[in-house]
């Protein structure tokens, strides 16, 4: 596969430096992409860049994921209006290891082929560089005029940031250029990949390589991913959609992709999966025949949930979705692990009861200890009308005896009042 053509049809090509495609067609090429290590998980805002590396390796080239331990201690002004918090080395190392585990799901680090992926940390070659040496060996090759002309710098200087641009951040593009130079010299890395906001930093690197060692280096950027309504991609009301299940459960992750608009799904399935052009065209055609079935969203959510989490997590997420929105059974509900159960029913009314509530009639539990119903009369009437379910099983008598065997995961009880009103009871 031709990498540039692959990016082009997938809608993942924004800028490309002259001569890049010729370089890639000439030989196996090494490219790197920088990843901010300020958290111990990637979020879906990182995914376009990570998928660039994945496609790059699939095209027979060698990807390097660079964790910015040194640059992460400074903060990149590109697209930012505030300076970042600076992290200590122990935190950065922890974050690096966590990110490596996530990247292993996208890239092959263990192959014995020459294009096996590598992970590097720029802190390793930057930490011992003395300031005077850096100023003399690197700083002299790039003029202040050249650095000032960058859009990211101009925006910060022209009032986007409340506190202006610190010298620390101003040096960021030099440090990123130094990374490119180091990888060019030590890893024969001739290409840098990144988001469109990184174009200025990338070109500083290619310029430094040209001036310092008379080398030829190249750059490619992917576009900033947005939603069809123009809103920034990857954010929800509760914040970032993370790849780590501790921050975003597989169920919520799956639901995010399942709920994207049709127009977005057509773009996202090209960007965030490895499905072929022909496969995607067939799925899109099927989807357009019956958009209400959301075949496109379901396939998108399936592919990316399996890639980031696992097939088992996908199955659990699908099962959970049917419990909330379909006619799922009590048996299916009992298959859910506690993490998924709590994720599915996050936000529904939640009652905590003491363990002594584990014996007695349901009507006492659901009117007194966990007041799902305002009165016993209301509950009896709804039970008679067939509108009360406990753990997805219809209750035939309000006087039914409740005991611990009914609990989900040994501690939860799901009560459904009518078609849509759910309540979760947790026994402490």
UniProtKB/TrEMBL annotation:
The record, for Gene3D superfamilies, names: HUPs (3.40.50.620), RNA-binding S4 domain (3.10.290.10), Tyrosyl-Transfer RNA Synthetase (1.10.240.10)
Mind telling me which HAMAP family this protein's record contains? Tyr_tRNA_synth_type1 (MF_02006)
On subunit structure and binding partners, the annotation says:
Homodimer.
Instruction: Return the CDD domains for the record.
Output: TyrRS_core
Query: What GO molecular functions are on record for this protein?
Result: ATP binding; protein homodimerization activity; RNA binding; tyrosine-tRNA ligase activity
Q: Which residues form the signal peptide?
A: none
Q: Where is this motif: 'HIGH' region?
A: 37-46
UniProtKB keywords: Aminoacyl-tRNA synthetase, ATP-binding, Cytoplasm, Ligase, Nucleotide-binding, Protein biosynthesis, RNA-binding
Main function:
Catalyzes the attachment of tyrosine to tRNA(Tyr) in a two-step reaction: tyrosine is first activated by ATP to form Tyr-AMP and then transferred to the acceptor end of tRNA(Tyr).
Record InterPro entries: aa-tRNA-synth_I_CS, aa-tRNA-synth_Ic, Rossmann-like_a/b/a_fold, S4_RNA-bd_sf, SYY-like_C, Tyr-tRNA-ligase, Tyr-tRNA-ligase_bac-type, Tyr-tRNA-ligase_bac_1
Q: Give the catalysed reaction(s), semicolon-separated.
A: tRNA(Tyr) + L-tyrosine + ATP = L-tyrosyl-tRNA(Tyr) + AMP + diphosphate + H(+)
In the Enzyme Commission scheme, what number(s) does this protein have? 6.1.1.1
Which residues of the sequence carry a binding annotation for ATP? Answer: 235
Q: What PANTHER family does this protein map onto? A: TYROSINE--TRNA LIGASE, MITOCHONDRIAL, TYROSYL-TRNA SYNTHETASE
GO cellular component entries: cytosol
Positions of the Tyrosine--tRNA ligase SYY-like C-terminal domain: 343-425
One GO biological process term: tyrosyl-tRNA aminoacylation
| Protein name in UniProt | Tyrosine--tRNA ligase
Motif placement: 'KMSKS' region? 232-236
* Positions bound to L-tyrosine: 32, 172, 176
Where does this protein reside within or beyond the cell? Cytoplasm
State the family it belongs to. Answer: Belongs to the class-I aminoacyl-tRNA synthetase family. TyrS type 1 subfamily.
């Amino acid at each position: 596969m031709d990498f540039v053509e692959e990016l082009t049809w997938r809608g993942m090509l924004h800028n490309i430096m002259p001569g890049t495609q010729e370089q890639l067609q000439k030989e196996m090429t090494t490219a790197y992409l920088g990843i901010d290590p300020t958290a111990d998980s990637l979020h879906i805002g990182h995914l376009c860049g990570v998928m660039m590396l994945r496609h790059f390796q699939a095209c027979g080239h060698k990807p390097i994921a660079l964790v910015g331990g040194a640059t992460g201690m400074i903060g990149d002004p590109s697209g930012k209006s505030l300076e970042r918090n600076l992290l200590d080395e122990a935190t950065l190392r922890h974050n690096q290891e966590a990110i490596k585990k996530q990247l292993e799901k996208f890239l092959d680090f263990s192959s014995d082929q020459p294009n096996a992926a590598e992970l590097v940390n720029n802190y390793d070659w930057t930490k011992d560089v003395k300031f005077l040496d850096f100023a003399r060996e690197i700083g002299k090759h790039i003029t202040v005029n050249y650095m000032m002309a960058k859009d990211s710098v101009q925006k910060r200087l022209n009032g986007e940031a409340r506190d202006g641009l610190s010298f620390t951040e101003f040096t960021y593009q030099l440090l990123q250029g130094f990374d490119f130079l180091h990888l060019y010299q030590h890893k024969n890395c001739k290409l840098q990949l990144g988001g469109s906001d990184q174009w200025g930093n990338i070109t500083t690197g290619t310029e430094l390589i040209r001036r310092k060692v008379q080398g030829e280096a190249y750059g490619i950027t992917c576009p900033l991913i947005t939603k069809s309504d123009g809103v920034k991609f990857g954010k929800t009301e509760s914040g970032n959609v993370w790849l780590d299940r501790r921050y975003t459960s597989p169920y919520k992750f799956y639901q995010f992709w399942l709920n994207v608009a049709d127009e977005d799904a057509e773009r996202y399935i090209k960007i965030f999966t490895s499905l072929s052009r022909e496969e995607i065209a067939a799925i899109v055609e099927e989807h357009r025949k019956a958009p209400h079935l959301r075949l496109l969203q379901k396939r998108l959510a399936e592919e990316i949930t399996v890639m980031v989490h696992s097939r088992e997590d996908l199955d659990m997420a699908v099962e959970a979705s049917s419990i909330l929105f379909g006619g799922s059974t009590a048996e299916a509900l009992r298959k859910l692990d506690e993490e998924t159960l709590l994720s599915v029913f996050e936000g529904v009314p939640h009652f905590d009861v003491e363990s002594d509530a584990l014996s007695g009639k349901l009507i006492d539990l659901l009117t007194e200890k966990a007041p799902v119903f305002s009165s016993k009369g209301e509950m009896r009437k709804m039970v008679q009308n067939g509108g009360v379910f406990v753990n997805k099983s219809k209750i035939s008598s309000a006087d039914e005896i409740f005991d611990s065997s009914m609990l989900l995961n040994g501690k939860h009880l799901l009560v459904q009042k009518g078609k849509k009103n759910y309540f979760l009871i947790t026994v402490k």
